[in-house]
Design brief:
alpha/beta, 8-stranded parallel barrel, 15% strand, globular, binds 1,3-dihydroxyacetonephosphate, TrioseP_Isoase_bac/euk, Triosephosphate_isomerase_AS, isomerase
Length: 244
């Protein structure tokens, strides 16, 4: 089984000072988290201060997005090589990027390749909308997204996949652990034991253990609750406890 992972997606929150404080609080409370790999994903501009704050703690740092091109005239964008000097992970294809910024499975796939080529480990986000779920097509949608996003990658075991049903993100309405397990169980067949699968969408202290107790779920991608160090650490402890 892959090691359990709990990642915090801070989204567009925290100033530089707030990011440094939050990262320091997580690092200082690390002993509470149990045996899980922790990843903090602040906004780009805070990557350096977060990296400094967690230096030597074993906590990893991740970005929330990147461009697939290596360099050039792409105003406002950041490349994999730029990130590699600051962090080890990058979230790709988050549903907010898909819905608000036109991200597609094809662009995510290009980014996954660029990330791996640069030595970054991608956390690929997939998940169905409420309409897709109500039409009965959730499993097919998610499988299609995963296949398209990781097409032709040279090392599937170096990809982390996060199942985040769109209807559960930031809504306080988490999927049930059974729904998440059903979707995630068959995603990778023979590779299923070597690709870490995270659940995301309204994860909190009260529900993290139930998700992590599902056999196919290796951890959590946490949004809102990752902005409070004590809650994030408690979620990590719940995941560690459920995974034994
Ligand atoms: O989008 C998410 C993590 O990437 C989930 O966000 P919430 O935990 O705030 O629902």
């Amino acid at each position: 089984m892959p090691r359990s992972i709990v990642a915090g997606n801070w989204k567009m929150n925290t100033t530089l000072d707030e990011a440094a404080t939050l990262a320091s609080e997580v690092a200082e409370g690390l002993a509470e988290a149990g045996s899980v790999e922790l990843i903090l994903c602040p906004p780009y501009i805070s990557l350096a201060v977060v990296r400094r704050a967690v230096n030597g703690s074993g906590i990893h740092v991740g970005a929330q997005n990147m461009h697939y091109e290596a360099s050039g005239a792409f105003t406002g964008e950041v490349s994999a090589a730029m990130l590699r000097s600051l962090c080890h992970y990058v979230i790709l294809g988050h549903s907010e990027r898909r819905q608000l910024f036109g991200e597609t499975d094809e662009t995510v796939n290009r980014k996954v390749h660029a990330a791996q080529d640069a030595g970054l480990r991608p956390i690929v986000c997939v998940g169905e909308t409420l309409a897709q779920r109500e039409e009965g097509g959730a499993a097919d949608v998610v499988e299609g997204q995963v296949l398209a996003c990781v097409a032709d990658v040279h090392d599937i075991t170096d990809v982390v996949v996060a199942y985040e049903p769109v209807w559960a993100i930031g809504t306080g309405r988490a999927a049930t652990p059974e729904i998440a397990e059903e979707i995630m169980r068959d995603l990778f067949g023979d590779d299923g034991d070597s690709v870490p699968l995270l659940y995301g969408g309204s994860v909190n202290v009260g529900n993290a253990a139930a998700f992590a107790a599902q056999p196919s779920i290796n951890g959590a991608l946490v949004g809102g609750a990752s902005l409070q160090a004590d809650q994030f650490l408690q979620i990590a402890a719940e995941v560690a406890g459920a995974k034994g």
